[in-house]
């Protein structure tokens, strides 16, 4: 019987278990956006995961949404990431990189005066973004012109190339959480009237062009996609969530990618379960599900066939040895939310593993 501890083949990725670490923004790369030794230590601590998905990483040098997120837009960033992948591989782990453009979820004060871009010219409403000058309302983005969209695709391609040069085992294309590709995908934000707006097929066009272009240079078996059709983060929604998932899942299935990740708001909600069922009907490769799972609900999802692997977020922040803790039914460390984005090791690399308590007993 398949369990969280059963191996899994996902495209070209061979995972020793089905416990996956979510891409978690931790803002430890500083203003250079170049990964460092502290980041390498953090990921290496968690290398027993079946797969590590490294945090949302900038494909554009002017695509900064959080002070301190890492980049993959040039050779310096790739060199910085190389120490991370080497540290993870030395521990026997596997790691892929989530490549990302924030679109309108950025600010000119974080990007040397560059105006954010999007599928639309409407800003994120009723929220603020942290900038060097403090919290600011989101700015109105500049609507991307048709002739600019091949350049967006190329940013993801170049990011994927740099990721492979840095030693990653693959990439995840971030099509979720109201960031740029999701701003095209979902109809509460995409108000275009050209061939990238209106119908589901048009709204999914940019995401699929990115998937095709990245797959052409690194192989589809090393490409995954994350979508979050019901997550409202960054002021986004879709009135056709199930048909959207059906179409995207079917299109991705035909492309033979490594896996599809569904980021749920809460996997226990009925509408989220409907999303998972829609994806399962049309995507026959591995589905990774993420959003409110514990050991029991994770096992149930695997047993039901709605997922081949489960992605854990908050649990991995505080438990570098989550695999061992789940296997032995050990208690989990609690997350210190006050240190999620603060610089330095506190709340980052100082969470104890089970072996630490044994060593000091």
Architecture overview:
The longest helix is centred in the middle third of the chain and has 17 residues, at 149-165. The chain is α/β, with parallel strands linked by helices and 361 residues long. The chain has one domain (8-360): Alpha-Beta Barrel (TIM Barrel), CATH 3.20.20. It is 34% helix and 16% strand. The chain contains 12 helices and 14 strands. Helix 3 packs parallel to helix 6 and helix 7 packs parallel to helix 8 (270-282). The strands form 4 sheets. An 8-stranded parallel barrel has the order 3-4-5-10-11-12-13-14, surrounded by 5 helices. Strands 1-2 form a two-stranded antiparallel sheet.
* Residue windows where pLDDT falls under 50 for at least 5 positions: none
What is the SS-derived class?
alpha/beta
**What spatial order of strands do you see in the largest sheet?**
3-4-5-10-11-12-13-14
Percent range for helical residues? Answer: 25-40%
* H-E order: EEEHEHEEEEEHEHHHEHEHEHEHHH
Q: What oligomeric state is this? A: single chain
**Radius of gyration from the alpha-carbon trace, in angstroms:** 19 Å
